[in-house]
Design brief:
CATH architecture of chain A: 3-Layer(aba) Sandwich
Strand order of the largest sheet of chain A: 5-6-7-3-8-9
CATH superfamily of chain A: P-loop containing nucleotide triphosphate hydrolases
Number of helices of chain A: 8
Largest sheet of chain B: none
Largest interface: A-B, 23 and 22 residues
Strand content of chain A: 25-35%
Mean pLDDT of chain B: 88
Helix content of chain B: over 70%
Mean pLDDT of chain A: 84
Order of helices and strands of chain A: EEEHEEHHHEHEHEEHH
CATH superfamily of chain B: ABC transporter involved in vitamin B12 uptake, BtuC
Largest sheet of chain A: 6 strands, mixed
CATH topology of chain A: Rossmann fold
Structural class of chain A: alpha/beta
Number of strands of chain A: 9
Number of domains of chain A: 1
CATH topology of chain B: ABC transporter involved in vitamin B12 uptake, BtuC
CATH architecture of chain B: Orthogonal Bundle
Oligomer: heterodimer
Radius of gyration of chain A: 18 Å
Strand content of chain B: under 5%
């Protein structure tokens, strides 16, 4: 069971207006695995996630999900109109097919029930991200796609989100695809890493794959400052 | 004085409920001006109905439907700016409609003509209104989700294009059944103004929808009553009442 394949991607290519945004990307994910996708801004990381769940259509290549799989998705940007009259509870009740009660998930994420009566428009960036996480896991997904925000989230908040993801993984054995800008996250949490810059520059286990050469190719020379190994 | 005031009132309540309900989605999706412009697309259809002596409501629906089909196609298939297309469509149909509609009926088409509406049309409007309300309530969750969070809706396999088409169809029907009450020029006041007022007064979505419907009903029945008693134009009275509530709601917000 542990080797059960959840997702197999073959030669995925996405072209917008004649520009190749993703070029020939192939990888796979097994049950309970954590895959980190790294790459500079505009390297196609968010497009990759959006294509995997069908928001964006691929130009060529195949995406094969395991049958009956439930997929959770946390978008990078989620803007709530500041005049939107909607409480957190009302928002969460829009989820089409919940498998758990809202209160159970709030407990798992360590959120107080009082947040349910808050207006969506009044949440801070960090709170909004946690509510999106509740949204994403309330139907007990087999895999969670997490597109890390580049803005509006403080470092401490972000750290706690990763702890949460880790905690949820222990709890439910969820597989994860994390788009990240932070190599620390990759070393600490991921089983596999995929380096993306339109093309797939590297793919494999982080300690073996993230060589100085690959990082230099991916980010340019300044990436060396981030290249620390952490003990998990 | 209207001859069949009870029937007018019943039809008015049904039409206002549909308008108030659909208006909430227009406000959330920031489509209010688009729907305002869209209403003018009904004009040439109404004109043909008057000239060739068939139900103007039907002509209006047909033209509106072609209008939304065009807008929807353009939005989903091309990169043309939707507001400029709507703008072009709006002035062109306004010009053509004004040219075709006989002068005696022009003002009625622009501002409404409840007194001339037949019982058959009132009943037809009521039935369409009930269909609009039932459909909107049936798809309330996916419509709301695709309005407030299109990407999340897409990740739940709720097609944005389908929801957009559903909403545009509901708008079309709502516009066409409201025209006899408040006319082409004021029709959007029936859906936009109550919804905008309700948003100012609400901190949750349930209250937002309910208030919008209540305000729409109150404005339209109030307008009808005033015109029934004092011979005031019902469309104008309705818009002024709903605008009055909007102004009041601005004070509450602070």
């Amino acid at each position: 069971m542990a080797n059960e394949l959840l997702l197999k991607v073959n030669d995925l290519t996405v072209i917008f207006d004649g520009v190749k945004v993703l070029d020939d990307v192939s990888f796979e994910i097994k049950k309970e695995e954590v895959l980190a996708v790294i790459g500079p801004n505009g390297s196609g990381k968010s497009v990759l996630l959006k294509t995997l769940i069908g928001i964006t259509k691929q130009t060529s290549g195949t995406i094969e999900w395991a049958p009956e799989i439930r997929i959770g998705y946390l978008p990078q940007r989620f803007q709530v109109d500041k005049y939107l009259p909607m409480t957190v509870k009302e928002f969460l009740e829009l989820k089409p097919d919940p498998k758990e009660s809202i209160n159970t998930v709030l407990k798992e994420i360590n959120l107080d029930k009082t947040i349910l009566n808050e207006a969506m428009a009044h949440l801070s960036g960090g709170q909004l991200q946690k509510i999106l996480l509740v949204w994403a896991i309330i139907d007990k997904p087999h895999i969670l796609l997490f597109d890390e925000p580049t803005e509006n989230i403080d470092v401490v908040g972000q750290e706690s989100v990763y702890k949460l993801l880790h905690h949820l993984q222990d709890l439910h054995n969820i597989a994860l695809i994390i788009v990240s800008h932070d190599l620390h996250v990759v070393y600490r949490y991921a089983n596999h890493v995929l380096c993306l810059n339109q093309k797939m520059l590297c793919y494999g286990e982080p300690h073996k794959t993230l060589t100085n050469e690959h990082l230099a190719e991916l980010y340019g020379d300044h990436a060396f400052f981030h290249h620390h190994h952490y003990d998990v | 004085m209207f001859e069949n005031f009870p029937l007018i009132l019943i039809s008015g309540i049904a039409v206002a409920t549909a308008s108030g309900l659909i208006g909430t989605f227009l406000v959330v999706r920031k489509m209010t001006l688009m729907s305002d412009a869209l209403s003018h697309v009904a004009l040439p259809g109404i004109a043909l109905g008057i000239i060739f002596n068939f139900q103007p409501l039907v002509g209006g629906v047909v033209f509106l439907f072609f209008g939304i089909l065009l807008i929807w196609k353009i939005e989903n298939k091309t990169k043309l700016a939707i507001e400029s297309i709507t703008g072009v469509l709006f002035v062109t149909t306004l010009a053509v409609g004004t040219l075709l509609i006989p002068e005696t009926e022009l003002l009625e088409t622009f501002f409404g003509s409840v007194e001339k509406t037949t019982s058959f049309q009132l009943i037809l409007q009521t039935i369409i209104a009930v269909i609009v309300i039932a459909t909107a309530l049936k798809y309330l969750k996916p419509l709301t989700l695709s309005s407030v969070a299109p990407d999340l809706a897409a990740s739940e396999k709720i097609s944005h294009a389908k929801m957009q088409f559903l909403l545009l169809t509901l708008i079309t029907l709502t516009i066409s059944i409201g025209i006899s009450f408040v006319g082409v020029l004021l029709i959007s006041a029936l859906s936009i103004v109550p919804a905008a007022t309700a948003r100012n007064l609400s901190d949750n979505f349930k209250l937002f929808i309910r208030l919008s419907v209540i305000l729409a009903i109150f404005s339209l029945t109030g307008g009808l009553y005033i015109s029934h008693v004092w011979h005031f134009d019902p469309g104008i009275a309705t818009v002024l009442i709903s605008a009055f509530f909007f102004v009041l709601s601005l004070f509450k917000k602070q």
